[in-house]
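Async update (no meeting this week)

Hi team, since we skipped the sync, here's where things stand on the single-chain job. The sequence we agreed to prioritize is pasted below, unchanged from the tracker. I ran it this morning and attached the output directly underneath so nobody has to dig for it. Comments welcome in thread, and please keep replies under the output.
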Amino acid sequence: MTDAPLLRSALYMPGSNARAIAKARALPVDAIVLDLEDSVAPEAKADARAQIVAAFNDGGFGPRYRVARINAHDGAWGRADLAALAQAPLDAVLAPKIDDAADVRDLADVMAGAGFADDVALWIMVETPLAVLNLAQIAACAADTPLAGMVLGLNDLAKDSGIAQLPGRAAFQPVLTMAVLAARAHGLIVLDGVCNALDDEDRLHAECRQARDGGFDGKTLIHPRQIATANAIFAPSPDEIAEAEAIVAAFDDPAHAGRGAIRVDGKMVERLHLAQAEVLLARARRIAARPQDPPAEGQAQGRN
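Output:
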């Protein structure tokens, strides 16, 4: 997915909070998710909807991927969200409470009827037991709908399943792995769920590392101070870049022309490792080319 957006970090911000939306324009985050669902009280939904549309139309988000999370698509709030967002310049709609392929197709039909541009992606939350059981059929909808991404919602899944969110997330590991496999089978972006422990940097670091090692593209966040850690961990490290460069250089050596496997720094590497190295280096170049925004006030520095 070399043409996929860079999404190491995706920060949720309440659509009802004008100050937060203004702050989002200067945060060093890859994606901004302006929320109309959980973080917005029922009486504030209409005002938040108008505020998000105005913010997207005003621009100023730079290279940040622009996402709006709507309310459940089969309710009045969700339908009103989609009607309002259809003409706003955003990159993706994030839909909660998706259970199966039928939900995805219904949502795609509503988006088409509302007049969304063809390049607006559909992302869905994986946050119900049924969604987990139906991951393969949901992901397969990418073939003929705008579906382009999946986001883990472990808070809701924990609530509905009774599975405890303990440090290490061992009980959720099967869900994490199946989500990644479903996404990769159908060319989808997949983002890890949020870390609720705002003051526990070690836990955030561990979750980011677990998600990165598990194949996720990035992590959703709930506070600006979490951005630096996610950005650092989901970026290739200097050692990884050096190893990838060595692999590419070795295969470029005329002495190795036509060979399928060679020895590089004491390891046997094949052309599949060359492909992985090229993807890693392309990602590193994209990160290096991004504008260097200063860290937000109070934002922790990540460790890699």
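Quick observations from my side:
Residues 294-304 have pLDDT under 50 and may be disordered.
The radius of gyration is 20 Å.
Reply here if anything looks off.
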